[in-house]
Amino acid sequence: MRKNYTTTTQNKKSEDFESLLADFVGEDFSYKGCTYKVPFHEQGTQQVRFSGLSLLWGQQSFSPEKGEAARFFVDKAGGARGHFTVHMEVTDCGSEDVCCPVAFYIFREGNPRPLSEHEEGQITGFCSQNDFPPLEENLTPGRYFLLMDGLADDGEQAVLQMMGRYACLPFVVMEAGSSLSHPVVASAEVSRPEEELEAGPCSSGMLCLAVRFSSSLPTDCEISAMCYTEDWKLQAQAERLLTARRQGERTIHFRFRSDLIWMAGSYTVILQHNREPFAAVTFKYCGEPVTKAHCRLLSEAEVEYRLVKDLAENGVMQRVREFTGMARLRPRLAELMSVGDYNVYCQEQRLAELQENIYMAVTSEAPFHAKRLAYCLPKLLKFGTSDSKMQDCAEWLESDAPDELLDERAGQTLILYNIGVLCSGKGREYLAALEEVVADSFSFWALILCGTEEELRQLFTCSPVLEQAIRPELRLPVERPSLAEVVHWFQQELGKTAFRLDAEAENKLVRQVEAYYGAVSLWPREEVFRFVMKGIVGRMKRRIRKGYVSAHKPSRIDMIRVKAEDISLEEWLQASATAVLVEPAEADARVFAESMKELEEMVGLQSLKEALTTDFYRMRFNEQRRRLGLSVGEEEARHIIFTGNPGTGKTTVARLLGKIYHALGLLSKGEVIATERRELVGEYIGQTEEKLNALLQRARGNVLFIDEAYSLCTDTDDRRDYGHRVVEGLLSVLTEPRPDMLIVLAGYEEEMERLLQSNPGLRSRFPYHYRFADYNADELMQIALRLLERDDYRLTPEAEALLRDTIEDTLSHKDRYFANARWMNQFILSGVLPAMARRVMTGEGTEDVEVYQTIERADVEEAIRRQASLAATTKNARPRIGFRA
Length: 885
Known about the structure:
Elements: E1 6-9, H1 17-25, E2 27-31, E3 34-38, E4 48-57, E5 60-62, E6 71-74, E7 84-92, E8 100-108, E9 116-122, E10 125-131, E11 142-149, E12 151-153, E13 161-163, E14 166-175, E15 185-191, E16 205-213, E17 221-228, E18 234-242, E19 251-258, E20 265-273, E21 276-285, E22 290-292, E23 294-297, H2 303-313, H3 315-320, H4 329-348, E24 358-363, H5 367-380, E25 387-392, H6 393-398, H7 402-406, E26 412-417, H8 427-439, E27 446-451, H9 453-462, H10 464-469, E28 475-477, H11 483-495, E29 500-501, H12 503-515, H13 517-520, H14 525-546, H15 556-560, E30 561-562, H16 569-579, H17 586-600, H18 606-627, E31 640-644, H19 650-663, E32 672-675, H20 677-680, H21 687-699, E33 703-706, H22 723-734, E34 742-747, H23 749-758, H24 760-765, E35 768-772, H25 777-790, E36 794-795, H26 797-812, H27 821-842, E37 854-855, H28 857-873
Parallel strand pairs: 4-12, 6-14, 24-27, 24-28, 25-26, 26-27, 29-30, 31-34, 31-35, 32-33, 33-34, 36-37
Antiparallel strand pairs: 1-9, 2-3, 4-5, 4-7, 7-10, 8-9, 8-11, 11-14, 13-14, 15-16, 15-22, 16-19, 17-18, 17-20, 20-21, 21-23
Family: Belongs to the CbxX/CfxQ family.
GO molecular function, one term: ATP hydrolysis activity
Domain AAA+ ATPase: 636-772
């Protein structure tokens, strides 16, 4: 959402007139026994409630609401003169008609004047971003705090220290670990509480790691531990802040708490000193209460060091981290990434790059897994190509022009799948053309072949040229998911509900998955979800209903705790083999039906509902064909464009899309991530890409809703406007076959059409275009009546008649910025109900319930007067821009 106004100031250290004036008009603030000078700023009459606060410094950030450590790390000489940003996911000013001033200050403890300050008006909405100006000096290690005036914490748990009207968030700046001397690990021991092992060796919960060092530990630093499975999936993490009170100690006790089952197998714990990896602790867990661990130092040259750094800092690697069957590939990818880094360094030094054509192969039993990894490789390994094109070889053969695809290869990465057809009669001609361009080293390009191991073996038999070109170290096999990955799949799907496994159920789940690993390791995630909802939760509910006695009602804990008897993979597999999955699972159908019912209950939008319903059932039909092993053709894009005026229900429909797509198995999470141009476009080269990459990472598995999308491409040719870079960056996601993301662009009809014309690649990536018509008088009246009925209000006939007349009169004078349903809600909640409350409470006191329920004509009249007065007051104010639907 856009802010109504922004003012930014930077305090000067010189004793000029403004700083002297600040001494007289500023306000004193005491914190930890020191007095600080808060400069004069505008103060609002009410506080802004917020949730989801994050503080950012360059690429680093922390969110106290998520329990993240309030720390930043800078080089020994101090951090670059960057700027701080305060981000809030939701802001609430109590009304959409007000703009509340909020002042932000960054103080260093002991320094009475703020290092930087920022004042910005807040409105009710999503994604409030507040950028401080750049610091005049480098950020150096020490203790700091963020001071805010005008905010009230509205999160699930308080994250700020409230001191009078001020909110305070302390944080620490530390020296980055890369320039520090690290402690030396002497020994380590792993243990688990015996009570957690009573039901068996495999359960979630606590695992303790005691690490003893050869000398006293340093102080005023952070030692953290990241525990990884054999698949290099993060199992748990812990950290310790070493203060002067711990001086002389040599042992640190890390307590890893994990909701995931601790599976039998090998684990690696990477120790970090101020976020710099310096030691590795490995152990083999077999369910014993105490286990000895092995320790060693970690150098920058080792693959584990590189892997951990990439998992923490590389956005593409963070995405690849979620892929399954990658246990042996992740270390190999970390080694291959060094070539790309070398070329980046050559660019920085203005030297010639090590540029050679790249020929690779990715194999998997599931073609989708091979294509998914192949699509990420050009960015992950920094190929240096400008674009990627994914091509089905069967479709290539239908073109009758083998050279047409290959002639466009220069500077591109070409990803070929369904490669088995190249060994057929007609395919030999296309294979020969491919061999010819592979042997040509004059054009720089990259080739990735995707298929099964058998398809690749047959292709190499037909083409020794390709077998020689694709070196063994560049053949990447995606394996079946490991036993731990499959077990954790089930846990993660169950974790999306309110139900939880007890310790005996966890151990039985491990035994069952191990027994039927050959079958369940090939399940798609949607089949895992169906088993969890019907095969586990369904059995559990039947068990509880069967033993239900009204005189002895089960507790809530008993009603959400899954027991061992509720899990039977054998029964599910036998039933599935009999039914051949002809009918969709009941849980899938129920979630889908509930979401569709909510869509149908929305007022108006009839043509939109019909179009959405048809498309949803077609997608569900295709998913069912896929489960039955039938062809559904090439994966098509499902991204959507919404056009229409404010208040017509676009955000509400986007939320339902997330739920429905999640029910269909097309999105792993299904939430809505709302954003707009302000949150995407940077102010300097590279910042836009940083913002977009961070947003795309957060949007994986969700609906990415971009409001006012047309503002990303202006009518000017000014290349200093970086909005076009957002569109170019989105195209990379839009071309992915199944990106686990739904992108929705929203805006006015005419402006959105200009956006589609501005980039030829956009229109084909958005096959669905839904138009949201304005509500008519009957529909707005229905919205008002539903709102009142929900909260136990009713209108007298006279009040209802006047309300309808008001709606019709408003519609006759509306412009394109009319807020539709939002105006209706606002008129009732901020106009009619306050007028009713004033009338009732200033009259004679009564206990009659009907008096507190009945809205009279006078209440509507007072709301009309209030609306007219407000319109006159804001007549000359700058109009708000954007959608609030």
